[in-house]
Amino acid sequence: MATQRIEIVIKATTQYKNYHVGQIITNRFTHQSFINALDKFEGEKQFTFKEIGFSEEGRVIKSVTFGKGKTKLLLWSQMHGNESVATRAILDILKFLTANDEFDSFRKELAQKLTIQFIPMLNPDGTNRFQRRTATEIDMNRDAIALQTPEGKLLMDIVDEFKPDFAFNLHDQRRFYNVKDTEVPSSMSFLAPAYNMGREVNSTRKKAMQLIAGMNNVLQSYIPEGVGLYDDTYGFRAFGDNIQAKGVCTILVESGWMANDMEKETIRKLNFLALLSAFQLIVDNSFTKYSIKDYAFIPAIDTKLFDVLIKNVSIGDKSEAKVDLGINRTEHALEAPSYYSVGMLEDIGNLSAHYGFETIKTKGLKAVSGKSILVNKLEELSMVSVKRLLRQGILFLITQDVPFESHVPFPINLVHPRKIQEAQAIKFDGKANFLLVDRSNVIKYIILNGFLLHPSKIDTTVNGLVVV
Ligand SMILES: [Zn+2]
Q1: Residues 6+ apart with CB under 8 A from 313
Q2: For strand 394-398 and strand 71-77, is the pairing parallel, antiparallel, or unpaired?
Q3: pLDDT tens track for 51-76
């Protein structure tokens, strides 16, 4: 019976496009655009909408409740403003819950047996800045005791009032998490948070472990080996740990990454699957068939992934030493949904225990500095000429006339004359701009602001930087 139910969830996920809310498809969006998408569900009879409070800067925080059942679930997302995947997945879950199709009996059962309260986007001020912290620069997930943020206080008040049986604390994790000892990104990470320093397991935490084991079982069919366990060190200031300590079975979900999914739309679909699976596992109690061992069997996560890993190269002509180069990019917020990237050479040396989203293993390569030329009239630059320059190994345009502030919206760097030597250096913790050449000095790869470009196929959507 339980197995058949899981089949329902898996089948519903194969029809995910019917439930995907296409209004928001990027990591970065505003509170207002989210509210516009959410409010489309307000008239639906299945839901009770409530304005539960306001953020520090007065933005409304809403909750949506589904069902009239005895077992109560509370889900909240985006307490960190730059972690938006679950907020988008909640929109998809709402759309699924209001659809009329072959899954109607499943929906009816959920509505009869469960009361599910969603609080999507708990940190609207952080969302609008695409930053982790609140408007007062407090990390809300370290405010569960002090409760100095209005948003955190709101959440704790609802936990105390609503008294959920199950709580889902929905986050995103950074890109460099892999499943330990593998090159596989941890696309979905889970944790049954500890409720004390001893990390003991009582009946509440055990249930969380069983439920996660059940969710993992379903996810494995989509991302084999791509599920990991988050570190369970007791976080005495964190919400998950404190709510678990109140006797509410609490699950931390950390949405990770996968290759070629910069806007995390595939990860969003995995969230849809994971949350719907959790509802099913709870509604028929089938999570109880999983054990603590099944949970412990999920591998730990590690932080060994680079955006680009280059193996076994020499740097310049100074040394014959062969080293590995680890490059990571960070994204910096512009007006939503835009951002620009900054790529850094984060490690040099023996990185044999590391992995890359993109890995270069070609033998006999040498990293050499990018070339530069003086330019007078930037407006004469076309994409064709940028590509031509890159193929010649020119990564830097020296100019006093810089029309951009922080970055260049195409793949080339603009450098002030006095900064050119610094910009061309290949050094630890420096910006990642250089060429990889073979023994005949033929350019095999171009590293432009941390992006790996092939001379024959230059991706013109990546950005360069302004160095002044
Ligand atoms: Zn978070």
Answers
A1: 322, 323, 324, 325, 365, 366, 367, 436
A2: unpaired
A3: 999 999 999 999 999 999 999 999 99
In the reported structure, the alpha carbon of residue 226 is separated from the centroid of ligand 1 by a whole-number distance in angstroms of 19
Cα–Cα distance for residue pair 153/147, rounded to 1 Å: 5
Residues 6+ apart with CB under 8 A from 16: 92, 269, 272
Residues whose CB is less than 8 angstroms from the CB of residue 383 and which lie 6 or more positions away in sequence, other chains included: 410, 460
Q: How far is the CA of 83 from the centre of ligand 1 (A)?
A: 6
Cα of 80 from ligand 1 centre, angstroms? 5
CA 443–ligand 1 middle distance (angstroms): 41
- CA of 283 relative to ligand 1 center, distance in Å: 27
The amino acid that residue 222 corresponds to is: Y
Residues 6+ apart with CB under 8 A from 45: none
Q: Please, what is the angle between helix 104-113 and helix 85-98, to 10°?
A: 110
From the CA of 169, how far away is ligand 1's center (Å)?
A: 9
3-state secondary structure of 382: coil
Distance from Cα 269 to the centre of ligand 1, integer Å: 19
What are the tens digits of pLDDT across the range 220-264? 999 999 999 999 999 999 999 999 999 999 999 999 999 999 999
Taking the centre of ligand 1 as the mean of its atom positions, its distance from the CA of residue 394, in whole angstroms, is 40
What is the Cα–Cα distance from 157 to 154, expressed in whole angstroms? 5
Nearest Cα to 393, choosing from 323, 444, 326, 465? 444
